[in-house]
Here is the input.
Amino acid sequence: MERFFERRGVIVLFALVACLFLVQGAWAHHGWGWATDEQFELTGTIIEVRLGNLHGEVTLEVGGERWVVEVGQPWRDERAGLTAEQLGVGQVGAFRWPPG
Here is the structure.
């Protein structure tokens, strides 16, 4: 019986350590510390669009390079007035950071 609790303790400890690494990754993903303080604009031809959860993505071709721009969740896009029709393949798209 004592061995059972010993093994269970090791499993619980391992699970806690694993959760700490997962939380750290989620925090890094949602942080904006990397963003520049200056206005940044990227304009190019839309070559691919994927709207939906968790974040939508728009792929642009800019000067022979591909850039992937994350847009908001569907409900945020809708609230901001962004529609799928505005992001058609072949259209020119301009994305600005910070938005506004």
In short: The radius of gyration is 21 Å. The mean pLDDT is 77. The longest strand covers residues 40-50.
